[in-house]
């Protein structure tokens, strides 16, 4: 992803939902949503999601999962 990355609590994300969605849509932002400091969701643009799915589909099926 090329846009900015931010991390917000569920409450902060909800408070400015429309602004956060616009940021993802128009600024190619990536928002990590957290609950009690732990990631519970990632909000990305539809284009980013489609690229990720295409990359996964093109990956060899026997490839090991990436290590975190």
TrEMBL record:
Q: What is this protein called?
A: Antitoxin
Q: What does this protein do?
A: Antitoxin component of a type II toxin-antitoxin (TA) system.
State the organism named in the record. Umezawaea tangerina
Q: Specify the taxonomic lineage.
A: Bacteria, Bacillati, Actinomycetota, Actinomycetes, Pseudonocardiales
Q: Which domain of life is it from?
A: Bacteria
Q: Which family does it belong to?
A: Belongs to the phD/YefM antitoxin family.
């Amino acid at each position: 992803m090329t846009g900015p990355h931010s991390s917000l609590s569920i409450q902060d994300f909800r408070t400015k939902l429309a602004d956060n969605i616009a940021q993802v849509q128009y600024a190619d932002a990536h928002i990590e949503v957290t609950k009690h400091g732990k990631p519970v969701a990632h909000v990305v643009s539809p284009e980013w999601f489609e690229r990720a799915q295409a990359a996964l589909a093109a990956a060899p099926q026997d490839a090991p999962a990436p290590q975190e």
